[in-house]
Amino acid sequence: MSVTDAVLAELYDPPAPSRVLTVRSADGAILHVEVHGPDDGTAGAPAVVLAHGWTCSTAFWAAQIRALRTDHKVIAYDQRGHGRTPASPACSTDALADDLEAVLEATLAPGERAVVAGHSMGGMTVMAASARPAFRAHAAAVLLCSTGSSRLVAESTVLPLRPGRLRTWLTGHILGSRAPLGPVTPVARRVLKYTTMGAGSAPHMVEACARIVHACPRRVRYSWSNVLDLLDLDHAVRELRVPTAVVAGTADRLTPPVHARRLAEALPDCAGLTELPGVGHMTPVESPDVVTARIRELVAAYVTHSAQETQEQQDLKEGA
What we know:
It is built from 14 helices and 8 strands. It is an alpha/beta fold. Helix 2 (62-68) crosses helix 14 and helix 3 (93-107) packs across helix 4.
């Protein structure tokens, strides 16, 4: 094993889960779900649910899983066609919302609430589910990382051209290409770094992201690119009524900071906007400590505190 492989294994291979579930979504689609750390329900560790983005997998959250599993119940799942979840003919924001609802109901006890964190398409999943009953029953707070609710292709800065129809058309064709990505080569690393990461990203970060993205099947990548191209979840942002924090990289070319600022303005209960200088689209990998810290802050403020208040109220009721 080379030094690079050793670093990748240490930092980017998620630890073995304490429990693996096969969850069935509303249309029968099968989802691969992992539970890490303590799994004691409402009386035990606070829960965190992680939803990854387009072309990624549960491995994308390795840093957060490693950091949080010691004192949190961490739930991560593979989106349709990604990682170990089989592809499905249904590719839509409604399907994403169905899947998140199914995961929440399968992994959280009645009354158990969690911080739900979504990166990129995972953030869009959260928005799509914002008005769903299971989401409202289980989501105590939300973290949106490097995501947007509409105009993704039009506002992407992957191509260094003036905004307009030509840039939008070319960007759509590049991001929606059917071409296979092939093996991870030096050229592939440079392209992925330019497109998705900040200029200062460490080589092991780029390698880890490249391996994850290149593992996504070509047909899955293409199918979901069409969904993202037509995305319009502006209405769903206004339904996201739980405290919601937003994190964005200032060097993000896929979802530039304009998306994060627009989300922060539109959210009914924005719990803060964090802009990370020089960081690209892959915020949980590029700035793992910041993302983990924001999750912990949300847990402390809206899950642990709420649980303590509920217990105190129950104690008073029983003592009355």
